[in-house]
Amino acid sequence: MNYPMELRPALLLPQGQLHMAEPANTLFTRSAVEISQHLQVPFEMAMYSLLSVISTTCQGRHRIKLPNSQIKPISLAILIIAPSGGRKSTLLKLLLSALLKVEREEYQEHTKLLEEYETELSQWEAERDGLLRAMKRDRSKGLPVNETKLTLDDHKKMKPARPRRFRLTFEDVTDASIFAHLAKEMPSASLITSEGKTLFDSAMFKAFGKLNALLSGDRTTVDRVNQPPLELDDVSLGLLAMTQFGVLQHHLENRGEELREAGLYARLMVIQPESLNGHRFLDPDAPNPTWEAWREGEKRLENLARENRLLLIAPDTEPMSLCFSDDAGRCWVQYYNEIEAENRPGGRFEHSQDHASKLAEMAARVAASLHLFEGQEGPITTATLLQAIDLCNWSSMNFHEVFQPLPQVCRDAQQLNDWFQDHRNRGIRHLPRTWVRQRCPNPLRKRDRLLAAIEELQAHGQVMQFMDGKTTILDLMPWQPFAPQP
């Protein structure tokens, strides 16, 4: 190979999880296992949701320094696809409990500070008005006003500052609200919802250019009518959206191509776990669940959340940069190079180079979040990076299943063949094509889509067309000996 490559186990090429054949004995994994077992939600769903919450608590105060010397945010954008009844809301309620506890406490403190601020502001305004009246009076009498003007200038500098509000999580919010929060309150926040449709339909998703910039950590300016523009520089925005597959498909049909071209989907970690609906049985003799790992994890999240108070007190404080150990840095470079090699024609990422371009950076962000959650000291270790790579590799497989699916004609053919199979099961072999078009699944009743699907099935030997007079007939079982129509 014509790029640096060490003799390590392949990190990327064998698809799927490579280093987590047995769950790592980390607080992160043990917490996810407990949550999955006790709430009866898929392990992947618990794991990636927890990862998003960890990132939310850390992203404001920390950055990751890549081996190529670039400094990147550690915020994550995660999409989880789960059916109705998948306990998405129950899971989020548990995971966000520590953050919401801190937010409630800080809100009570903010309310007190706001009352004090309004009192101080009223006093300041009264003093300002008195100085303005005195200046106006002296000017009307022809008296000098220079001294009063200097006093007024000094008074302006003493205007009390409105207390900032501590808030890390938002659910249903407008783009204007989140931009104002990041600029004036805290330079860190995450959009977290168990109802993805709310987010897909929101103004936030319509402002995808700004959303892209914020997810990447880029500087952006938000222009406002009759108000000064908002300068968003070095702010962190995370995203966790849980949604049903049908809701996502509707969104993709309406705006999928536009947002894919804009690069929004490439920034997503995607997970589509197998549903547990119909398999979550209760054991009346089961002991009460123990939450040893999660209680420790919850306490850790609470402490990490409280560290964000510095963003209120000193919002201009420089974020702390995490870095990799020498061995982990070489490991990350190999991962980056393997991804780059797969962008070649015939490679895994030939048709998803947008996604591939973010994958190595995504692994670094995940590693930083895991490092902080585990409370590790010093540089990020190779073991932590490998766990992050596993999470990104698994997500990458799901990304391709969702955003690089079979061509439309193949999906149409599969849907049509399922419908034909129901007729085969009832012993029906021949159907007029016109009759099929009138009664087949609704999306296939457009002539061009139906004909393309039939031709696809015919190419694979699933149906055969023949003429009976002027009528086109479909033989649903062409592999059977030919028999006249009944």
Short description:
This protein is α/β, with parallel strands linked by helices.
Verbal overview:
The chain is α/β, with parallel strands linked by helices and 486 residues long. 53% of the residues lie in helices and 12% in strands. The protein is built from 18 helices and 13 strands. The chain has helices at residues 27-39, 43-58, 88-95, 97-140, 146-157, 175-185, 196-200, 203-206, 208-216, 245-262, 292-306, 310-313, 326-341, 353-373, 382-403, 408-425, 433-439, 447-459, and strands at residues 62-65, 71-73, 77-81, 169-170, 188-193, 220-224, 227-232, 236-243, 268-271, 320-322, 430-432, 464-468, 471-475. The protein has a 5-stranded parallel sheet, with helices on both faces. It has a 3-stranded mixed sheet with strand order 2-1-10, with helices on one face. The protein has a 3-stranded antiparallel sheet with strand order 11-13-12. Helix 6 (175-185) links the parallel strand 4 and strand 5. Helix 2 (43-58) packs across helix 14, helix 4 (97-140) runs parallel beside helix 11 and helix 13 (326-341) packs antiparallel against helix 14. The radius of gyration is 29 Å and the shape is elongated. Mean pLDDT is 87; it is low at 1-9 and 13-18.
